[in-house]
Amino acid sequence: MSSSTTETTSPQGFSLEGEAYVEAIIERYRQYVNPGLARLMQFGGFGDVEVSAEGCVLTTATGAQYLDFLGGYGVFSVGHRHPKVVEAVHRQLDRLPLSARTFFCEAQALLAERLAQLTPGALQFTFFSNSGTEAVEAALKMARVATGRTQFVSTEGSYHGKSMGSLSVTGREKYRKPFEPLVPGVTFVPYNDVEALAEAVSSQTAAVILEAIQGEGGIIPAKPGYLTAAREICDRHGALLIVDEVQTGLGRTGALFGVDHEGVCPDIMTLAKALGGGVMPIGATIATAPIWERIFGENPLLHTSTFGGNPLACAAGLATLEVIQEEKLVQRAAERGEQLLAGLRAVQQEAGGAIVEVRGRGLMIGVEFAVKDVAELTINGMARRGVIAAYTLNNPKVIRLEPPLIVTADQVDTALRAFREAALEAISLLEGLEESVE
Ligand SMILES: *Cc1c(COP(=O)(O)O)cnc(C)c1O
């Protein structure tokens, strides 16, 4: 963590500076946002206020600079404030930020066309929304109407969002239970288990929903053949295959889409996080023409969103897709991913049994610790060394590393050094504690 001159000029014109400013903002989180979350963030080593960011580097109110190896859970694939995305959004901002909702919108038309060109198979039409969970909601509604069936098969540990429908297919009891009854008819099977999937899918199944790599489940890549098998199982029963690429999409895994590793074509694909280029929120649900005919054929307004497909978000999306292509970010994700994986595996060797596994694809990488507390302490230790990481929501033993795809080899080395020191420190600290207890 390097300290430089503080730059705390508040965009809201707030008068305090430095530590007093930080305390005043955190106090408002305690009073008006979420006290428990405030505690959690401070405990994690993030008791500071973000002020600005560029590329892979985030600057806080106390003047500290961090390498962002969380990347907004996959939001910042082209980095923070990529000039091309910022410029495209500025251009649109100065003309027409939000749609008047009666006329046609250029940015939406062009982005839908581009997505149809880039996505695999017969995926053609796009419904735009504002987040990942909305993209999944739309996918579930489409699957029901398109098949006339009501049942879904999802996987344990999966994450598809926290609105009622998406939550209903999210594979973690802890987040579902308090809100039951949820959408009925969902069966959960273990991820990567072809037999269990084959057994769960029937002629009642509207769709199977899967991630190409389980993100919040602990960065668990699909085993070779799993997605292909899922495709075959769906076809056998006339069920649709929804692949949730909200986190894996647009280069993150070293392929443009997670399904590209296997050449599998889903019937419905969801995108969000990276699509807005780290500048605008956007969600997208892309499906085939026959599905579109079923859902929108009679009533083109059957599913809508006021802000979905707005000009600012679509301008950001178009610019983002251009940047990913121009800067060869898919290939760079694969290369930097290899470097990061190799470096982490070397630390795993040093750590004895404390690090159970290092896994992932491209720049979607997870490190599984034997003990949850070691993972937490490592995240904290990395933060103190100026590198941001986080654990996965459904599996706190796993630290996830998802830096922007523009990350350089030097930045990867810097993060690896911080990880090594923090992990070894955390391991010896907890070993010491255990001994003193004994
Ligand atoms: C983040 C995520 C979502 C939910 O996206 P939000 O924008 O937070 O609603 C859904 N699916 C996957 C795979 C995700 O990683």
UniProtKB/TrEMBL annotation:
Belongs to the class-III pyridoxal-phosphate-dependent aminotransferase family. Gene3D superfamilies: Aspartate Aminotransferase, domain 1, Type I PLP-dependent aspartate aminotransferase-like (Major domain). Keywords: Aminotransferase, Pyridoxal phosphate, Transferase. Its cofactor is pyridoxal 5'-phosphate. PANTHER family: ACETYLORNITHINE AMINOTRANSFERASE, MITOCHONDRIAL, AMINOTRANSFERASE CLASS III. This is Acetylornithine aminotransferase apoenzyme. Pfam families: Aminotran_3. CDD domains: OAT_like. One of its GO terms (molecular function) is identical protein binding. It comes from Chthonomonas calidirosea (strain DSM 23976 / ICMP 18418 / T49). Its EC number is 2.6.1.82. It comes from the Bacteria. It is an enzyme of class 2 (transferase).
